[in-house]
Amino acid sequence: MFRLFNRYFSIRHAFYLAFENTFVFLFLMWGTVIGGQWAYMMLALLVCQVCFYYGELFPSLPRISIKQFLVKHLPAMLFAAGVLLVFFLLVPPPRTEAGGMIWWRLASFPLLLIGLRLGYQKINRTHRLDTPILIIGSGAVSTALKEFLSNDRNLGYRIFHFQWDLNAANKSVDQLEHLNSIVSRQRIKQVVVALSDRRGQLPVESLLHLRVQGIEIFEAVSFYERVAGKLRVDWLKPSTLIFSEGFNRINLIRIAKRVSDVFFSVIGLLVSLPIFLMIPLLIKLSSKGPVFYLQERVGENGRPFMVMKFRSMQQDAEAKSGPVWALEDDPRVTPLGKIMRMLRIDEIPQMINVLKGEMSFVGPRPERALFVEQLRKKIPYYDLRFTVKPGLTGWAQVKYQYGATEQDALEKLQYDLYYVKHLSPLFDLTIVIDTIRVVLLGKGAR
Fold first, then answer.
1. Dihedrals phi, psi of 245, to nearest 5 degrees
2. Which tops the pLDDT comparison, 248 or 63?
């Protein structure tokens, strides 16, 4: 895997995407480099790839049947075709003698994309491109890591497990020889040390021998962080966070983040101005109560602030029950509120909180004080999420479902910790792009 904008991506999938786009672009450009036609070809390819991306049609698409594969791609292809048809009718490409060939290629290149991806899927099913990886350990950490990699085969790892036995009398000879033979025989490229307690157990000499041969050696916590995009709090020790990379808080990053917050919130408020004119009227017509809903949340460094939202629940929804987690198909939500939550319209006024500096456009979602007191007693490192401003959207929001239980809060915290550790303006930009996809697909709404 390689890191870009503080996110980790599969090298294999990146190479495939580079090959796919280069191959299709050359197909479109063959004999058509006349009168600026290359710009239309690039636009066609870009629109198609954007539609695939927002349809969650990645090269790492789960290994499914050909029928399912085609069914998933058809809506994205039709939408891309519609966008390109409208654009080319409004701005026709330059006419040439090979005009018919150009339109034929434009019509057929989505099929070429599908064919390439089907071929890539078929190769993936053979596991020939999987990276052989060796997990060293015999405790809960190694078992959990092995299960995680086995359950997500699209990560592209062929897993081998070596149980390191501390009590073996012949540990210094037979176990080390066995370890080296596995690495050599299976052509291991990466080794993950997943020992519950490394004191007195770590096979230092053997690992050093492997490392100088170019084999990558990872510690379980850092490796899991790379492949999962989150930190396992039950594996973390304070020293792991203290000595690891990340947690950059230089002034340049703070200034850049604040500038991007103001930019995104101003643009967002301008674009959503028609919503501000229409939604208050609809709220008043559909239910009794105020248009806006103010609620105290916990912000950066534990400071409270009043978050602003369009009211999506019935008036005094918690008068009898008190503060409770949001539920799926929550009966307190009004019919209009369900639509607003699905499209995240109810959260648009929070851009005012961003302009005021109480929130950031991207960050951990702000939580209520009562729930914070409950969660910080049960979840390790929970207070670390308050070292940055809460956000209108965040890494946990694009990677995990809507949180409604303490277990959900734990999962979201693990993503939040990854964000807090790797915070950067470019990372924020990728989260904003992902948020658009989440909203368009109606995921995570409640």
1. -75, 165
2. 248
- From CA 420, how far away is CA 417, in angstroms rounded? 5
Q: What is the pLDDT of residue 433?
A: 92
Residues 84, 86, 87, 89, CA torsion sign: positive
The tens digit of pLDDT for each residue in 240-269 reads 888 888 888 888 889 999 999 999 899 999
Cα separation, 54 vs 280, whole angstroms: 30
Pairwise CA distance, residues 193 & 240, whole Å: 14
> Per 3-state DSSP, what percentage of the chain is helix, strand, and coil (rounded to 5)?
55, 10, 35
Half-sphere exposure (CA, 13 Å, Cβ side) for 88? 21
pTM of the model: 0.88
Judge whether 13 and 59 are in contact, CB under 8 Å: yes
In the chain, what's the furthest Cα-to-Cα distance? 81
> How is domain 131-228 classified at the architecture level of CATH?
3-Layer(aba) Sandwich (3.40)
**Sequence ranges of the domains in the chain:** 2-125, 131-228, 251-440
The residue whose two tokens read 């004080």 is 369
Residue 133 one-letter amino acid: I
Is the backbone of residue 199 left (phi > 0), alpha (psi -120 to 50) or beta? beta
